[in-house]
Design goal:
The complex is a heterodimer of chains A (about 260) and B (about 300).
Chain A: H1 12-25, H2 27-48, H3 61-92, H4 95-100, H5 106-134, H6 146-167, H7 174-188, H8 200-208, H9 211-222, H10 230-256
Chain B: E1 5-16, E2 19-30, E3 34-38, H1 45-52, E4 60-65, E5 68-69, H2 74-79, E6 81-84, H3 96-106, H4 111-124, H5 140-151, E7 158-162, H6 170-185, E8 189-193, H7 197-203, E9 206-211, E10 214-219, H8 221-228, E11 232-237, H9 240-250, E12 255-258, E13 261-266, H10 273-278, E14 283-288, H11 291-299
Helix pairs in contact in B: 3-4, 8-11
């Protein structure tokens, strides 16, 4: 049986549609709670701490931290969806086994999960985007590219999360993943202040995590300043997304088809 | 005309690491037959089924379903069969009807046809009044019926049933049996595993007995009974000293002992007359031999894992 992204057919959309249907059925549990975190971030970081900081890199603090808040909304939602969400569907509900007993393949389930995690991240980031828009934080038309960039960021983190999910025997291992990767990503990647404040070793570590690139590109779109190395950062973002999606899809195949 | 076999397995092997789950299995299932796989837990029945519906891959040997190789054509094979897995895997976040309709999408069945089939199948399985119920509110028997309805959504030619009636009350078991026999009458091929020998005897045209990853014997229920045990069984139940006494005198008759139970096998009921006369007070039951006797004879009466 062939494996990987290249073996996937449009059947994967049916699995995505199943997740979307369940999401919409449970919408009241899904939309509002996910917004609490970004709203608290805006309130605490932007309006609270921000009132003590006049400017950071020449802009008001809330303008600066907006990229971090937006990016966090995308990657955290995607991560939760493809860790606990996917694991629950795989192990507790046996949903994946029921799906691969139909013409849908395990690889298609894997890709659908990544696509669904990316969708959840996009939905969440779009809501935050609209809030920031109404708050009058955006000043440049280039911000129209932000939702697409957030979709890519969410797909990237969904793929990494699904790779972990496909490898672990029990849910408790996610604690290591969150402590060792997700939280450092959220805090070290230039979310709240520039990465350049860190010692060099930590800067290298931060740039290895793709989130740093996403935040840097976001900031270049929101604020009138260039990204550190736009083509390279984009290449890294797209490249890691493709590679981790391929790895996750293959690993999911090995997990489901034995 | 060549009779196309729905399932053909030749020296089929499956290993999980060093663990042998299925070893040199050969069997064939013809169209419209009900074929049973029976054996103790861990015998390899479920693994065999999973290879047939292409969610486990054979380690070696060949396995063809509808004349198609399972490693080369999983999608085509899966499109033509229905699965009732051992463990319920319904979508708990969706209603009864939504479960069927979402499942239909995986087969690319158009909406209107799916809606019609959903209605018909819920009726067929006596679930029409629960069409909009959330799955967690259904009883165990209803969930099982819903899974069978789901397995029929794609109008399959082959239905694979892994312990379809385990843990169900007699009413639901009989309803499921009736439905399965009705499906068989329509020409649908059935492959089922069960731990209930009465179920296997009632439904199956042919039975494969598996033990420790291998085939032990295969045949119709009648053939298996005639081939392995005598037609009559006298069951005796007594305390240990009594069991010893009985065995001392009548141990020459064909028998099996299991704790306080003794099973004597005979070609005629008269063979038991002397034994019965010698111990008239012992609790006893004289009955025709059944598939259960064959099963226990071939796989032993001791508990496995």
């Amino acid at each position: 049986m062939s494996e990987g992204i290249l073996s996937v057919t449009p059947y994967f959309i049916k699995v995505w549609a199943r997740n979307a249907q369940v999401f919409l059925t449970l919408w009241k549990f899904n939309f509002l709670p996910a917004l609490t975190e970004p709203l608290l971030f805006i309130f605490v970081m932007g309006l609270g701490i921000g009132s003590y900081i006049n400017e950071i890199e020449g802009v008001p603090y809330l303008d600066f931290v907006a990229a971090g808040i937006l990016g966090s909304a995308a990657i955290m939602q995607a991560t939760f969806e493809c860790t606990y969400g996917s694991f629950f569907r795989m192990r507790m509900q046996n949903t994946f086994e029921s799906i691969i007993s139909t013409p849908v393949s395990a690889d298609e389930v894997g890709l659908a999960e990544v696509a669904w995690g990316a969708t959840r991240g996009l939905v969440n980031a779009t809501l935050v985007f609209l809030i920031l828009l109404f708050m009058g934080i955006f000043h440049r038309w280039q911000v129209v590219f932000l939702p697409a960039l957030m979709f890519l960021a969410a797909a990237n983190f969904a793929a990494i999360a699904l790779l972990v999910t496909s490898r672990i025997a029990q849910m408790e291992y996610f604690r290591f993943y969150f402590a060792g990767f997700v939280l450092p990503a959220q805090f070290l990647c230039g979310t709240f202040f520039p990465v350049s404040r860190f010692p060099e070793a930590i800067q290298v570590f931060a740039w290895i995590i793709p989130f740093t690139s996403y935040i840097d590109i976001s900031r270049s779109l929101m604020l009138d300043r260039p990204a550190a190395a736009l083509p390279l950062e984009l290449l890294y973002a797209v490249g890691t997304t493709v590679i981790f999606t391929e790895l996750a899809v293959r690993s999911m195949h090995r997990r489901l088809v034995r | 005309m060549i009779q196309l076999m729905i399932i053909e397995a030749k020296s089929l092997n499956k290993k999980f690491g060093d663990v042998v789950a299925v070893e040199s299995l050969d069997f064939e299932v013809g169209r419209g037959r009900c074929y049973g796989l029976v054996g103790p837990n861990g015998a390899g029945k479920t693994t065999t089924m999973k290879m047939i519906y292409c969610i486990a891959e054979p380690t070696s040997g060949t396995l063809n379903v509808f004349g198609l190789n399972v490693l080369e054509h999983p999608r085509e094979i899966k499109a033509r069969l229905g699965v009732v897995p051992q463990e319920n895997n319904l979508d708990p976040d969706l209603s009864t009807c939504q479960n069927l309709r979402v499942y239909a999408r995986y087969f690319g069945i158009p909406r209107d046809i799916a809606a019609e089939r959903c209605q018909n199948l819920l009726e067929f399985m006596h679930l029409s009044d629960r069409a909009d119920s959330p799955v967690p509110s259904l009883s165990g028997g209803m969930k099982r019926r819903l899974i069978l309805a789901r397995a029929l959504m794609n109008d399959p030619e082959l239905i694979i049933l892994d312990e379809p009636t385990t843990g169900l009350d007699p009413q639901v078991r009989h309803l499921i049996w009736d439905r399965l026999l009705e499906l068989k009458e329509r020409g649908i091929t059935l492959l089922l595993t069960t731990h209930y020998m009465d179920e296997a005897q009632k439904l199956c045209d042919e039975i494969l007995i598996m033990d420790e990853a291998r085939s032990v014997d295969v045949g119709t229920p009648g053939e298996l009974i005639r081939g392995h045990v005598r037609p009559f069984v006298l069951e005796l139940r007594a305390d240990r000293t009594r069991v010893a006494e009985i065995l001392e005198r009548f141990g020459y008759l064909e028998h099996q002992a299991s704790g306080q139970n003794l099973y004597f096998y005979g070609n005629t009921t008269e063979e038991f007359d002397e034994l019965y006369g010698a111990f008239p007070d012992v609790e006893h039951l004289l009955r025709p031999a059944s598939l259960e006797d064959v099963f226990l004879k071939l796989t032993g009466r001791e508990i496995r894992q």
